[in-house]
Amino acid sequence: MAGLKGALIGCGFFAINQMHAWKDVKGADIVVICDRDPERLKIVGDQFGIERRYTDAATMFGDGGFDFVDIATTVQSHRALVEMAAAHKTPAICQKPFAKTLNDAKSMVAVCAQAGVPLMVHENFRWQTPIQVVKAILQSGAIGEPFWGRFSFRSGYDVFSGQPYLAEGARFIIEDLGIHTLDIARFILGDVTSLTARTKRVNPKIKGEDVATILLDHENGATSIVDVSYASKPAVEPFPETLIELDGTKGTLRLSQGYRIEVNGPDGIAVSDASPQLLPWASRPWHNIQESVLAIQQHWTDRLADGGETTTSGADNLKTFALVEAAYESATSGRAVDIGAMLQ
């Protein structure tokens, strides 16, 4: 079968990782790029040898010649671009955060469903090697039925130097990072029924919150804590690792700094290394995320080829997006939020 041809819209900071990963994906390649900034368009086009370049997405869609589109722009343009893809019957990947509001996200899912085209959100953190290993261990029954968990990302890493716009929004850490951690909690322990959150802004130079603590009640009866911070000052910087603690009816699982996994079960203690692969184009400490970009893009390509649904489809991601909206609502009101009611 001939490889799928893709178009990428948005040639900014993170899109470079996506372009590198597309070069490694089996069965697909990017043949068209689009960005409103001619300079960025030239830089990425020259770096990756892409001849077809556009500064206008509507013109690009009109000319066609590609099988799917990878939308790597900021959130303000997501709905318009997804609707444009649906109008042209073009399967679409959309970068997170999926939309500006939950209602926008619901509309985007609906318009793609009506057009009969696949829609996937680029929610790559669950595709990280250590997260996949944790899921596999849990599914093996090694610690029994999980009843408690903690998903933690606490760092002092300067994310603003590469993405200065992050300091300007009224929302920051839940929308930018917590969305990943909440998705991991869903992926590991299942969907959520209610949520309570507290936030804080420690860094006076930014507008949004840089610390959040979120309590989740899961459908299976488990309780978990999601805690994220860019205001912490650990002795050894863990960025960009997500640390996990799980307690089950037969034992415990700990994913600790350095990708060390310790399982204490009926057969004793087992320690293993879940370090991600350092791809040729990747660099530490980003390699964990960079490897997951390749994994999710390969997943998309495989599902397009076999007609299956992606694990982070637009419809599935509504459940993660609702957690983000609920966290901000709870932090403002001080009350728990019913997730099911938000998704109706």
Automatic annotation (TrEMBL):
Highest taxon listed in the record's lineage: Bacteria
Record-annotated Gfo/Idh/MocA-like oxidoreductase N-terminal domain positions: 6-121
GO molecular function: nucleotide binding
All copies of domain GFO/IDH/MocA-like oxidoreductase, residue ranges: 132-254
Pfam families: GFO_IDH_MocA, GFO_IDH_MocA_C3
Xref: PANTHER family: CONSERVED EXPRESSED OXIDOREDUCTASE (EUROFUNG) (PTHR43708), OXIDOREDUCTASE (PTHR43708:SF8)
The protein's name in its UniProt record: Gfo/Idh/MocA family oxidoreductase
